[in-house]
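One record is kept unedited as follows:
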Amino acid sequence: MEYSDIKSLYDNSIRKILSVNTEFKRYLYPMINWNNRLIGIKGVRGVGKTTLVLQHIKENFKELEAVLYVSLDDLWFASHSVMDLVDYHVTHGGTHIFMDEIHRHDHWQTLIKNIYDRYDDLYVVYTGSSMLELDAKEGDLSRRLRAYELYGMSFREFLWFEGVTQLQPVPLVELLQDHLHLAVDLTSKVKILPLFEKYLRCGYYPYYAEEGDGFLQRLQGTVRQVLESDLPAVEDVSFATIQKIKKMLMILAQRVPQTPKMNELYAQLETGRDQGLKMLNLLDRAGLVSLLSTEAKSLKQLSKPDKIYLGNPNLMNCLSSNVDTGTLRETFFNNQLRMNHSTVLPLKGDFLVDGKWLFEVGGKSKDFSQIKDEPDSFLALDGMEFGHGNRIPLWMFGLLY
């Protein structure tokens, strides 16, 4: 392979590195041990994986010739080998390679394993779809890999991204115990409720800032890319199945949350139970829906969920023609808690978190009648700047990460 064959890749790599903005960094950035020789970062499309790795390169490498960033959905790879590119990079002084969209490569685990084993001095970072799962049958990476997952922006990150304030994440225990002081301090400086409303409309995906009024259209495009491009790259699914998954998503978007009547849903999709559950699971892994089960069920099992939400509040505005306020609140709470905590559907209330804290989500007039006398119970209430006792403003649960 000659330099002329890959010049366009190196030029594009340098161009992207130099142009990335490093002022705002996602929560995951300082948590990554970049000294590991093999790092994998997966996440929902559009949450900022590419920006994160480009920021790292820009801030830590003076000699850009030793670094190569490539996206495997580049048309260059339609007629060229990834291994040939890696070999050229290493033999010409390259020490680090960053591979985006790794799921676009067939047998990606085998590819990564071969690169790792063949080039002892090469550092490899890859990013890919949130649907990626390690398969022990194909190139065992578990002993080599340091894996991370990037979620969409929290409300805390949104406040920083908007230039309002920089806050450190607040642990849930601290939030439950000291929410009043935290809220009074913040609301004395900013009008928090209009910002929270904006976050619910568009703040989960960092690219909202560059889209303006076109954000929802861009998000619809993101959803299509996930279903039409990322999904078949990760799973062996037919075109007909993808069409059914699209239809399932749109049906659910008009109904969530609910205790689903799965047989009716399967009938509408002209599919059986097993296939229907697999499609639901794929939507969950893609971050487009969130499946909630009772304590007795494992979320990893392919079993009927007890409640279904969309993956985040922005998707509600994108996919639903009639956004219900109560559903929007619950979707936000579920989304912000599920990154670092377990959420299940309790017998009373809306969410049981980590098996011990019971939450009811609603407007500021909601009372404890539905979870009366339940230990460790709290109300997460919308429309209020600060709370009292076990009544906590809903927006504050966006400060957890």
About this structure: Residues 215-234 form the longest helix (20 residues).
